[in-house]
Amino acid sequence: MYLLPLVILLVFTVLLIAIKKKVPASSTLPPEAITTPTPEESIPLSHWATDSGVLEIEEKIILIEDKLEAVDLQEVKLQPPILDMDVSL
Amino acid sequence: MRKFCPFIKIVFLFFVSFFTLLLFYSPALTQDFDFNRAFNDYVYNYNLYRSTHLDYVTAKNEYQTYGTLTSKNKALEVARKMLLQRAKAFETYLTALRMKLKEETGVNTYKQSLYFLKLDDEVTWLKQHQSLLTTPSTIEDLLEESGKLENRYPNTTVINYQALGVVLEGKENALRSETEELIDLVDKKVNEIKASGEDTQVLERWLIEAKQKVVLSQQKQAEAETLLSSMKPRDTGKAKDYDQARHLLIESNQYLKEAVSFLKETIREVKRA
Q: How many domains does chain B have?
């Protein structure tokens, strides 16, 4: 008569132990590997780097790059219209 | 009191004329006719055409089903309305195309004048065609007039595609011209650096590469131009040929992008010690 509650209690205890084993004791995350930033390779600049002509060319390059990217070579809306050219009655 | 009368009269007249002017002043009226306006006209007329075309299809079906005099008269009038709108939509399309050709910078002047003439001829013909569409009183006469546009259409389509091609060529011309100007600037700078006694071999090599890319871009555009100019009214694949030409122009643009990236590399090299 007392066997069934005892079995249930035993199963419950075993399950509780099993769950406790699966869950790590502490939920703290492993410490992240701290990467020390690699120092940026500083490229030595020539005296031309600050030359006004060079800077002007650089600006113009950026401008034309944008234009080349933005140009519409489709002109979809100017495709000839679809018109019925086979009218009969 | 009498002394003030003329003064009050003048003030009154001034206000009346001022408000009259204000009433009739409309920014739309003073706006110049440009591509955007021409394009809006075209879209409006094309939508009207589509609506009248639906009416025409319905009236045609009714006439073919019942064959009564009423349905015949209705079909005649609805077809006339549709044909008028078809011509109007096409006319406004050609006008929008002309405006695009006018506003696009970089378009070759000779080609621009040539296609202005061709498009103007078509517009004049379409206007005359519209006035002739109002006269026919029988279906046969109306269809005969309609047939005139249908026969002319393949030739006009060639003009449309070629003019559109000239617009795209213009865009490429403008970009190439800017790239060439940039190459000249870089060239001068490289020569300046060379004159200062520094080694410029790498820079010169990048520069040569950039110039070669521009040449390749020109070649691609020339291929596109040849393809467009060889288009014939009887060709069945006009749209396909135009699309191929457009792709060649996209390749031409790609070469320009590569030329600019070489220039960018040259400047990066210049800045390095």
A: 2
pLDDT value for B146 = 97
Residue B23 placed within a domain: no
With contact defined as beta carbons under 8 Å apart, do B200 and B210 qualify?
A: no
- The answer to whether B176 and A87 have CB atoms below 8 angstroms apart is no
Predicted confidence (pLDDT) per residue in B114-138, tens digit: 999 999 999 999 999 999 999 888 9
B166: in domain = no
- Statement: residue B23 has pLDDT above 50: no
| Structural domain boundaries, residue B209 | 172-271
Evaluate whether residue B121 is within a structural domain: yes
3-state SS, residue A51: coil
User: Long-range pairs for B48-54 at CB < 8 Å and ≥24 separation?
Assistant: B48/B85, B48/B88, B48/B89, B49/A81, B49/A83, B49/B82, B49/B85, B49/B86, B49/B88, B49/B89, B52/B78, B52/B81, B52/B82, B52/B85, B53/A84, B53/B82, B53/B85, B53/B86
Name the pLDDT band for B211 (thresholds 50, 70, 90).
very high
**Domain end among B135, B163, B191:** B135
Asked whether the beta carbons of B139 and B71 are under 8 A apart, the reply is no
Q: Does residue B71 sit at the A interface (CB-CB below 8 Å)?
A: no
Whether residue B130 sits in one domain with residue B192: no
- What the block records as the tokens of B225 is 């131009």
Same domain? For B178 and B106 the reply is no
B:109-168 residues touching chain A, CB 8 A cutoff: 139, 142-143, 146, 149-150, 153, 157, 160-161, 164, 167-168
End-of-domain residue from the set B135, B163, B198: B135
A83, closest residue in chain B (CA to CA) = B86
Q: Are residues B187 and B94 in the same domain?
A: no
User: Could you tell me which chain B residue has the CA closest to the CA of A69?
Assistant: B257
Would you list the DSSP string of B139-189? HHHHHHHHHHHHHHHHHHHHHHHHHHHHHHHHHHHHHHHHHHHHHHHHHHH
Residue B78 lies in a domain: yes
Extract long-range pairs of B66-70: CB within 8 Å, 24+ residues apart. Answer: none
